[in-house]
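Thread amino acids onto this structure.
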C-alpha cells in the first residue's frame, strides 16, 4: 500500500513548447528481457524508467542477468544466453506490470525451474489463463488462484514442446509469451493472430539474431520462431512511447490556441491508431522529420488546436490503439457529435475495467455515454463538459492521466484520488504537462 497522491487539473490557457515523452514501455520491457537472454552486453538508451519496467529489470536480475544503470535512460544488460536463467530465490513482485508478468511467464515456462509471481491489487485481479493455456500446451505447469489469477507459480519444463497457437484474443502479450517460451524450445513455435497486434517481440527477436518468419495465412498473420537460437547482444534505442505521447497530443487538440511539438515519438503502424482516429476527428497533427531510430519509425508530432467532430472507430483498429481509448474518449467528450468506439472487450481486463472508467467518469462529468455490448457511444456537444468531479484512478495510470487531461478544458476542475500509479509508465507526467501550460497541482 502507498499513501494516495491526489492531483487536481484546472482549465488551462493555450499550450506551447516542445517536449519528449518517456521511452516506449513495450520496447523497454523487451529490451531488458532480450538483453538478459542474449550473450554479451546489450546497451539500451532511452529506456523508460517507470515502475513497470524497473520491475522487469529486478526480475531479470533475480534470475541471473546483470542489469546496470549508467545514467538517465542508459542501461547495460549482460545476458546469460537462451535457457540460461536461474531459479529466483524469492517471489517475483511485478507490481502493476501486466506486460512484465505475461512475457516473463513465457520466458520462465521453458526453463527447468519454478518461480512465484505476484503483484499489486490491480495485477492480482487480471486474467492470466490466456497465457497459462498455451504455455501448458508447451509443457509448463501452473498453480494459481481461481481464474488463473496471481499469485501464481510457474513450474517450467525441461522438455518444452513447440506449438502452433491461434490467439483467441488479440493480445501481443499472449503472442509474446508463446514466442518467448519458443526461444528455449527445439523446433518451430508459431503464433497465428486473427488481428495483427504490436510486433515489437518479432522485431526484437530478429534484432538479436533469431530467425522469425512472418506469413499471411487464411487464419491470420502467422509468426514462426526457429527455436534455440544463439541470441547475441544488440544495442537498443527506445523511441518515445506513442501511448504516452497521446496525452499531450490530446491536450493540445482540446485547449484552444495550442501549438506544441512532441518530439521523437515511435510511430510503429501497429501502435499509431490513435493518431489516425484523432486526424479523422479533424485534429491538426503533423509528422515532422520522419526517421527510423532503432528499427522503428519515429517522428516529431506538431499538434495545433482544432475543433474536433465525432467519428466511428472500427473494431479492427483496436489492437493498434488499445491503450489509447481512454484518452481518445476524453477527446470524443469534447468533440461535436457522436463518436462510436467499437470492439472494446479487451478494455475490461486492463489495469482496471477501462470501459467502465470511460462510461462512469464521463457520465459524472455530464457527458452522454452509452455502452452497447463491446461498443462505447459518446455524444459530444462540441463544448467541454462541466467537470467539477473526483475520479477514482483504481490503480490505473491511464485513468489518472486521461482525466487530468480532460480537466484542462472542463468548466470546473477534475480531481484524481490517487495519481501515484502514473509513475508506472510516465514518471514526471504532471511537471512535463505543466511545462506546456497545463495546470495540474497537488491537493492538500
Ligand atoms: C502490450 C500489449 C497490450 C497493451 C499493453 C502492452 C505489450 O496488451 O495493452 O499495455 O507490450 O505487449 P495486450 O496484448 O494484452 O492487449
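Threaded sequence (444 positions):
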Amino acid at each position: 500500500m502507498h499513501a494516495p497522491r491526489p492531483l487536481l487539473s484546472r482549465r488551462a490557457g493555450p499550450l506551447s513548447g516542445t517536449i519528449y515523452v518517456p521511452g516506449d514501455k513495450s520496447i523497454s520491457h523487451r529490451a531488458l528481457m532480450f538483453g538478459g537472454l542474449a550473450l554479451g552486453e546489450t546497451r539500451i538508451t532511452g529506456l523508460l524508467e517507470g515502475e513497470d519496467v524497473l520491475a522487469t529489470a529486478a526480475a531479470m536480475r533475480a534470475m541471473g542477468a546483470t542489469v546496470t544503470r549508467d545514467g538517465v535512460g542508459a542501461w547495460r544488460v549482460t545476458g546469460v544466453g537462451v535457457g540460461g536463467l536461474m531459479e529466483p530465490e524469492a517471489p517475483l513482485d511485478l507490481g502493476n506490470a501486466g506486460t512484465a508478468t505475461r512475457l516473463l511467464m513465457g520466458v520462465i515456462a521453458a526453463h527447468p525451474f519454478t518461480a512465484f509471481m505476484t503483484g499489486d491489487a490491480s495485477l492480482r485481479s487480471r486474467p492470466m489463463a490466456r497465457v497459462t493455456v498455451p504455455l501448458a500446451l508447451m509443457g509448463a505447469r501452473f498453480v494459481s488462484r481461481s481464474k488463473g489469477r496471481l499469485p501464481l507459480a510457474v513450474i517450467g519444463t525441461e522438455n518444452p514442446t513447440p506449438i502452433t497457437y491461434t490467439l483467441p484474443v488479440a493480445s501481443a502479450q499472449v503472442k509474446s509469451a508463446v514466442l518467448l517460451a519458443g526461444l528455449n524450445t527445439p523446433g518451430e513455435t508459431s503464433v497465428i493472430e486473427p488481428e495483427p497486434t504490436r510486433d515489437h517481440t518479432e522485431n526484437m527477436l530478429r534484432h538479436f539474431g533469431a530467425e522469425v518468419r512472418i506469413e499471411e495465412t487464411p487464419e491470420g498473420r502467422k509468426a514462426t520462431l526457429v527455436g534455440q537460437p544463439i541470441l547475441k547482444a544488440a544495442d537498443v534505442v527506445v523511441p518515445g512511447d506513442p501511448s504516452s505521447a497521446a496525452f499531450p497530443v490530446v491536450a493540445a487538440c482540446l485547449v484552444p490556441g495550442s501549438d506544441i511539438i512532441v518530439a521523437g515519438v515511435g510511430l510503429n503502424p501497429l501502435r499509431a491508431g490513435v493518431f489516425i482516429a484523432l486526424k479523422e476527428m479533424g485534429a491538426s497533427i503533423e509528422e515532422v522529420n520522419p526517421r527510423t531510430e532503432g528499427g522503428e519509425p519515429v517522428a516529431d508530432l506538431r499538434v495545433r488546436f482544432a475543433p474536433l467532430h465525432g467519428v466511428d472507430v472500427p473494431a479492427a483498429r483496436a489492437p493498434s490503439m488499445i491503450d489509447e481509448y481512454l484518452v481518445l474518449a476524453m477527446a470524443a467528450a469534447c468533440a461535436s457529435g457522436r463518436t462510436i468506439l467499437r470492439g472494446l472487450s479487451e478494455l475490461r481486463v486492463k489495469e482496471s475495467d477501462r470501459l467502465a472508467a470511460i462510461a462512469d467518469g464521463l457520465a459524472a462529468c455530464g457527458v452522454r455515454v452509452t455502452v452497447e455490448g463491446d461498443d462505447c457511444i459518446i455524444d459530444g456537444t462540441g463544448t467541454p463538459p462541466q467537470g467539477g468531479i473526483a475520479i477514482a484512478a483504481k490503480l490505473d495510470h491511464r485513468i489518472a492521466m486521461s482525466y487530468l487531461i480532460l480537466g484542462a478544458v472542463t468548466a470546473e476542475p477534475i480531481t484524481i484520488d490517487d495519481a501515484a500509479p502514473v509513475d508506472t509508465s510516465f514518471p514526471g507526467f504532471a511537471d512535463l504537462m505543466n511545462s506546456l501550460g497545463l495546470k495540474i497541482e497537488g491537493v492538500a
